[in-house]
Design a protein that fits this description.
It is an enzyme of class 3 (hydrolase). The protein is about 45% helix and about 10% strand. With about 350 residues, the protein is an alpha/beta fold.
């Protein structure tokens, strides 16, 4: 019989009927991903892909707060202030895991209850069956720490209806269940009170049967009724013009969005916009992940990522000192350097 990881393992793995269950198990850190966790999940998927006893894989988060709040950003800051090799190796393996999930040959069910952000999106929103609840808060909030959406986030955001993805990326706003469904980050809505029963049903029933028995009509999204001003304002070619249109639109929600954008790293905002526009022209998730790896490595070498983590997580003063400090001061060459080729880690 296959040995099971200790109860204090950061990833719990077990077979339950014909379901292979993955539980991200760092609840005090909101199940933030470490390199070890990425490897454990990847190894489990590799084993279960060829295991006839496993017909479906289910991923969930331990604790009451959510599936996963993202990658371990304290670790990323430490790596950025060092030789940067640890973060590069982590991202390389994480992005390969994201690609594996998207191409997985067996049903991969993600229980996206509670907080699902950054790396949490990467291990859920590329799956084949993505379930949200009324508690779901799904986001790619990287610009708020001087970083850029990764884990295939630019692929998903660039394919959301109209300019909704651009709005979400540049403001770092979170989606509830209705918007996550509308924007292509989720497939089904199951009320949180029925989620445990839905998960249990997967041990004996196929995902289609479980969805039929437990999924319900989702609550209305907050963004779909605001497409007119969102599509108009975010269609601009530059971040400066987007902010101007938002500010001048006469729509209070648009002006608030402009203020949020101006509070984020100017470099990250401009690079994110460029990354989204380029991702629209890419042919596959794999190509988007390759682009994101280049962008992530470049951001790691800049000043804003460690500063953003300091302000939001270390000192918690919420007063990042971005460099440059304004959109207008970010030079085109600094944006373009994020898309330059980089050396891949040795296997």
């Amino acid at each position: 019989m296959q040995s099971q990881p200790a109860a204090d393992s950061p990833v719990l793995l077990r077979k339950d009927g014909h379901a292979g269950r993955i539980t991200l198990n760092r609840p005090r850190a909101l199940n933030s991903l470490t390199h070890e966790m990425v490897r454990l999940v990847d190894e489990a998927l590799g084993r279960w892909e060829h295991d006839d006893e496993v017909a479906v894989v289910v991923i969930e988060g331990a604790g009451e707060r959510g599936l996963c709040a993202g990658g371990d950003i304290r670790f990323m800051r430490e790596s950025a202030l060092g030789d940067r090799s640890a973060a590069r190796a982590f991202w390389w393996d994480e992005y390969r895991l994201n690609a594996r999930i998207a191409a997985y040959p067996k049903p991969y069910v993600a229980l996206m209850d509670g907080i699902v952000m950054g790396g949490g999106v990467g291990v859920s929103a590329h799956g084949g069956v993505r379930v949200v609840t009324e508690r779901s808060r799904v986001a790619m909030p990287e610009v708020g720490i001087g970083f850029v959406p990764d884990v295939g986030g630019t692929w998903l955001l660039s394919r959301a209806p109209g300019e909704l993805g651009t709005h979400l990326a540049l403001t770092a706003d979170a989606m509830g269940a209705g918007d996550a469904l509308a924007c292509g980050f989720a497939d089904h809505y199951v009320p949180q009170a029925r989620l445990a029963d839905f998960a249990a049903a997967l041990s004996t029933a196929g995902p289609a049967d479980a969805v039929r028995d437990f999924a319900q009509a989702p609550p209305a999204g907050a963004l779909t009724g605001q497409r007119e001003w969102i599509d108009s304002c975010y269609a601009a070619d530059t971040a400066e013009e987007i902010v101007r249109r938002l500010t001048d639109s006469g729509v209070p929600a648009a002006k608030e969005a402009a203020e949020r954008i101006l509070g984020h790293s100017p470099t990250a905002v401009k690079v994110t916009l460029r990354a989204l526009r380029r991702a629209r022209r890419l042919a596959s998730l794999d190509e988007a992940l390759e682009q994101e790896y280049r962008v992530s490595c470049a951001a790691l070498a800049g000043p804003d990522l460690p500063e953003g983590v300091r302000a939001q997580v270390i000192d918690k003063d919420r007063r990042p000192r971005w460099s440059p400090s304004t959109l207008g001061a970010v030079e085109e060459a600094d944006v373009e350097r994020h898309f330059a080729s980089v050396e891949k880690p040795s296997s």
